[in-house]
Write a structure and sequence with these properties.
This protein is an alpha+beta fold and 140 residues long. The chain has two helices and ten strands. It has a four-stranded mixed sheet, with helices on one face. Strands 7-10-9-8 form a four-stranded mixed sheet. The chain has a two-stranded antiparallel sheet with strand order 5-6. InterPro entries: Glyas_Bleomycin-R_OHBP_Dase, Glyas_Fos-R_dOase_dom, VOC_core.
Length: 140
Amino acid sequence: MTAAPLFHLAFPVDDLSKARRFYGDLLGCEEGRSSDEWVDFNFGGHQIVAHLAPDETGHRSINQVDGDAVPVRHFGLILSMEEWQSLADKLTAHGTQFIIEPHIRFKGQVGEQATMFFLDPCGNALEFKAFGTRDQIFAK
């Protein structure tokens, strides 16, 4: 059996030192290679790369999802419920300003999930979510 593919995402930031503090120090992502224009992070076993591109940062559009104004451009991880709650508690204690507060979405429906949205210091939107069981991730 072959290993599941890993995902790679490159995204814009306006300050690499802010990205290092946020992704490395706050979220605990191990730093990989870097240059004066980009830095790699281990994002739950996946590779994300913060590229210095100040004119491209931030999110601009939203869509409604179960009553929440969800930023169209966002990324994140699906965690276990315990990991999700631990991160929500850590971010709350850190004073993180949430775009969408930690809560349960689609309550009582197929695909019920815990979710939270917040911005990195460069304006990129992140979502961290959790499901009761992994089979709910793609359930219809």
